């Protein structure tokens, strides 16, 4: 049977960018014999409108069973005053939590045609292709004790960085598996010089590394890592780090390359029966209410998220590369959505035109 893909377009520009991904999916079915059992569902505000909840149990169950989930974006001003328990983002949080998606993958990829967009020198970012793996479900954002307490005559704010060996082990394994499929280089970042959790992190990652002798493992203090990321990011292939450092490093790395409309992501969990991890793919951007409904959204982040699904959930690395190269070609031809415009007076294409151009480039590939 065909691999299954659950599509949750969500709110705002989510359905607009997802419509372009559907064109790409159809192209693969018609031209490459790559067929998916695609089904759609509601998440976020649109689910609340229909069912009074941002994610129904039924959709949750379908997500658990799918080989991969592809999500657009959730939220919007219409839902800003809803009770916290039914806010759109709760739908997304429930998916991440119940699927136990502990590894967040954020690529920082620079298409040559957009290298001028970076705030860094062109040769520092041109051709950049690195991946940050951030631990997503533990660490200082969750550790106990936490809270604001009275101590003497003042208050103290407390958070606890806490990692178990098994939490480090599983995210390290995800990162090594990725490194095996990429450049076979992994850099682990922590602060073992000043943090106990960092000492344990380094020990466990080193131990897991023995199962991956082909991967060249290095360790870096996270602050030095931040410097190296800005100085010469191409020295890295895969970086693995904890929740807090990963939050900062992945946002910084993302901006090495430019627009929010270009950034895909994946969140991976434990391997399923087929050996592939549970997975949710989504663009980094939100529902962009300021441009929703106007055909202005850049669909590339969502299309690149589907490329990640091809590579990491469906074992179609070559087809993922084909798709990325089609996007590279379209950009090299000067096709731009409004968010990618510089000062040079190029007329932007619409969301749908960008999708058509990508499909044309696929056909020419
Ligand atoms: P946003 O990412 O939606 O938009 C930030 C800015 O980037 C806006 O000016 C927007 O027009 C632009 N932008 C974003 N994606 C774009 C694209 N594909 N093409 C062209 N321009 C694009 O973040 P913002 O404005 O902070 O949040 C808007 C709503 O989205 C809120 O309700 C927020 O809660 C939600 N949100 C949802 C996320 C998700 O579903 N994972 C993530 C972030 C925000
Ligand atoms: Mg962040």
Automatic annotation (TrEMBL):
Residues 4-358 form the Isopropylmalate dehydrogenase-like domain. NAD(+) binds at residues 76-89, 286-298. Its cofactor is Mn(2+); Mg(2+). It catalyses: (2R,3S)-3-isopropylmalate + NAD(+) = 4-methyl-2-oxopentanoate + CO2 + NADH. Mg(2+) binds at residues 223, 247, 251. GO terms for molecular function: 3-isopropylmalate dehydrogenase activity; magnesium ion binding; NAD binding. InterPro entries: IsoCit/isopropylmalate_DH_CS, IsoPropMal-DH-like_dom, Isopropylmalate_DH. Keywords: Amino-acid biosynthesis, Branched-chain amino acid biosynthesis, Cytoplasm, Leucine biosynthesis, Magnesium, Manganese, Metal-binding, NAD, Oxidoreductase. Its EC number is 1.1.1.85. Pathway: Amino-acid biosynthesis; L-leucine biosynthesis; L-leucine from 3-methyl-2-oxobutanoate: step 3/4. The record marks 141, 191 as: Important for catalysis. One of its GO terms (biological process) is L-leucine biosynthetic process. It comes from the Bacteria. One of its GO terms (cellular component) is cytosol. Binds 1 Mg(2+) or Mn(2+) ion per subunit. Substrate binds at residues 96, 106, 134, 223. Signal peptide: none annotated. It is an enzyme of class 1 (oxidoreductase). Belongs to the isocitrate and isopropylmalate dehydrogenases family. LeuB type 1 subfamily. NCBIfam families: leuB (TIGR00169). Homodimer. Catalyzes the oxidation of 3-carboxy-2-hydroxy-4-methylpentanoate (3-isopropylmalate) to 3-carboxy-4-methyl-2-oxopentanoate. The product decarboxylates to 4-methyl-2 oxopentanoate. This is 3-isopropylmalate dehydrogenase. It comes from Pseudoprimorskyibacter insulae. The lineage of its organism: Bacteria, Pseudomonadati, Pseudomonadota, Alphaproteobacteria, Rhodobacterales. The gene is leuB.
């Amino acid at each position: 049977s065909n691999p299954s893909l659950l599509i949750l377009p969500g709110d705002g520009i989510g359905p607009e960018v997802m419509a372009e991904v559907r064109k790409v999916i159809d192209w693969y079915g018609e031209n490459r014999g790559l067929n998916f059992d695609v089904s759609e569902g509601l998440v976020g505000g649109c689910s609340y409108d229909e069912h009074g909840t941002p994610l129904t149990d039924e959709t949750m169950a379908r997500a658990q069973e799918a080989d991969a989930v592809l999500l657009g974006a959730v939220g919007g001003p219409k839902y800003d005053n809803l009770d916290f328990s039914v806010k759109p983002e709760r739908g997304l949080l429930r998916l991440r939590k119940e699927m136990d998606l502990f590894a967040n993958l954020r690529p920082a990829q620079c298409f040559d045609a957009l290298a001028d967009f970076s705030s860094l020198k062109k040769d520092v970012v041109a051709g950049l292709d690195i991946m940050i793996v951030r631990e997503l479900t533990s660490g200082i954002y969750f550790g106990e004790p936490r809270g604001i307490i009275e101590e003497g005559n003042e208050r103290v704010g407390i958070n606890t960085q806490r990692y178990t060996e098994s939490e480090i082990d599983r995210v390290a394994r995800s990162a090594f598996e990725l490194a095996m499929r990429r450049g076979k280089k992994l850099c682990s970042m922590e602060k073992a010089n000043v943090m106990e959790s960092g000492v344990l992190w380094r020990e466990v990652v080193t131990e897991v590394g023995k199962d991956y002798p082909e991967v060249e493992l290095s360790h870096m203090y996270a602050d030095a890592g931040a410097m190296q990321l800005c100085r010469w990011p191409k020295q890295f292939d895969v970086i693995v780090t904890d929740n807090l450092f990963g939050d900062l490093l992945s946002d910084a790395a993302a901006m090495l390359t430019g627009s929010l409309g270009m950034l895909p992501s994946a969140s991976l969990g434990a391997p399923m029966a087929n050996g592939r991890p549970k997975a949710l793919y989504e663009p980094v951007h939100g529902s962009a209410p300021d441009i929703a409904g106007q055909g202005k959204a850049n669909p590339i982040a969502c299309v690149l998220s589907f490329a990640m699904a091809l590579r990491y959930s469906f074992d179609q690395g070559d087809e993922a590369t084909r798709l990325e190269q089609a996007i590279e070609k379209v950009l090299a031809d000067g096709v731009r959505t409004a968010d990618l415009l510089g000062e040079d007076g190029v007329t932007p294409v619409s969301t749908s035109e960008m999708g058509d151009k990508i499909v044309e480039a696929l056909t020419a590939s």
